[in-house]
Amino acid sequence: MPRLAGQIDLAKSEAILDAASEVLAERGLAAPIEEIARRAGVSKQTVYNHFGSKTELVRELVARRVSSMTAPLREQDAEAHPEEALAAYALTLIRVVTARTYSLMRITMQSAAEMPDLAREVFENGPKASRAQLARFLEIEVKAGRLAIDDIPQAADFFAGMVVSHRQTQALLGLADPPTDEEAERTAKAAARVFMRAYAP
């Protein structure tokens, strides 16, 4: 069955984002759009038709990653089971910051002085956006009486910091292999358990 035009466009967008993730991780923020287009199997103009500019492309790429990472906080029963939701979010966070594709963040840091606007886009639509979604989830839990938190943004920072710990620094420096699934799950569950006890009503 042939795909509809919208489905074709979506498939192209995903191919471009996948290619951009690879190329930017390999060559940094200064990577040419032509290389991203070549890797995606589309024309340079198609990239611009879909995303308008490299800044928009980077913004969408990072937003896609954040959407995937924070998905556990938006599950249908997440609000009723905050410890499980936080553990699932923590697990995705660990996997993102320890993945070999996290080299995009490392290269962004290296390119920040020369390309501050793109570096800002990565931060605003990446770590900052992820933390804001976590804070919104915690606010819902506070209003429901399942958590008692005075400073919600600070609590979100505490949780993310507890989960990421030294793993992010090691990943940025390329000093450690990703944890095993068992190690990541154990850490995620422990972080959620400790956090829930610390902010119990």
TrEMBL record:
Keyword Oxidoreductase in annotation: no
Residue span, HTH tetR-type domain: 10-69
Cite the SUPFAM superfamilies for this sequence.
Answer: Homeodomain-like, Tetracyclin repressor-like, C-terminal domain
InterPro entries for the chain? Homeodomain-like_sf, HTH-type_TetR-like_transc_reg, HTH_TetR, Tet_transcr_reg_TetR-rel_C_sf, TetR_C_Proteobacteria
**Coiled-coil spans in chain:** none
UniProt protein name = AcrR family transcriptional regulator
Protein keywords: DNA-binding
DNA bind region: 32-51
Q: Which organism's genome codes for this protein?
A: Caulobacter ginsengisoli
Which region is the signal sequence? none
